[in-house]
Amino acid sequence: MAVKAHGWATLELRVVDCRLCPRLRGHCAEVARVRRRAYRSHEYWGRPVPGFGDRRARILLLGLAPAAHGANRTGRMFTGDSSGDWLYGALHRAGLASQPTSTARDDGLRLEGAYISAACRCAPPANRPTIDEMHRCSPFLDREFELLRSLRVTVALGKIAWDAAFRRAARVDQRRVPRPRPAFGHGAETRLFLRTGRPAVTLIGSYHPSQQNTHTGRLTRPMLDAVMRRAKRLADG
């Protein structure tokens, strides 16, 4: 699929209306139909989720995919689940979000200098999209990179997001992708050309704020705060 050069409004409509991955669309719709008991009275979004944030952002936060009962329920990236609580709390402490919580699309939250996207726009079964599904979704991310004209830093929330950034860099110019490829790690940094005809962007790795990482102590709030402070310093520098 090619996403033609167009603006934000058209891009968001194309994301929401995308039907290229029947497995993912079916899963999102089924989750929205059955619903979790705690959210039985909620109206689920149940569709692909567009990016969210400041369109003049210098920092892009790149995740894996919407959570089944998080963004797939609320329709906004990292909204309505514990991963979002961690991420938006860190963004607020870094001065990048107007409030520390994100509960619904109409909760008044604003991002200032940051934009949030994902490698896959539909909630996948077991949080595992296939490579082919992410490939079909990649034109949406490509277009966001081109529209984020002030971008200086990308924070990859997890190894899958880190790998997605490298695949994007290869689509821009395979010859300028670092060799050997820098390994993912919390706080890892490299420079990638992620936009056509534009300067390189700093890519920073961060463990994903999933319960698997936060409940085990693999990721702590000070660790996440350190990545956000580093991203903001580079973006403002």
In a nutshell, what does this entry contain?
This protein is α/β, with parallel strands linked by helices.
Give a verbal description of the structure.
It is a single chain. Helix 1 (8-17) runs antiparallel to helix 5 and helix 4 (82-93) packs across helix 8 (221-236). The protein has one domain: 3-Layer(aba) Sandwich (Uracil-DNA Glycosylase, subunit E), CATH 3.40.470. The chain is built from eight helices and six strands; from the N terminus they run ααββααβαβαββαα. The radius of gyration is 17 Å and the shape is globular. The protein has helices at residues 8-17, 22-34, 71-74, 82-93, 131-147, 159-173, 211-214, 221-236, and strands at 52-53, 59-63, 114-118, 153-157, 189-192, 201-206.
CA(first)-CA(last) distance: 36 Å
Instruction: Kindly give the count of domains.
Output: 1
Largest sheet: 6 strands, mixed
How would you sum up the global shape? Answer: globular
Q: Let me know the number of strands.
A: 6
Structural class based on helices, strands and sheet pairing: alpha/beta
Number of continuous helical runs: 8
Mean pLDDT, to the nearest integer, reads: 96
CATH fold assignment: Uracil-DNA Glycosylase, subunit E
Measured by DSSP, the beta-strand proportion falls in 5-15%
The CATH level-2 architecture is identified as 3-Layer(aba) Sandwich
CATH class: Alpha Beta
Helical amount: 25-40%
Give the SSE string.
HHEEHHEHEHEEHH
Low-pLDDT segments, ≥5 res: none
CATH superfamily: Uracil-DNA glycosylase-like domain
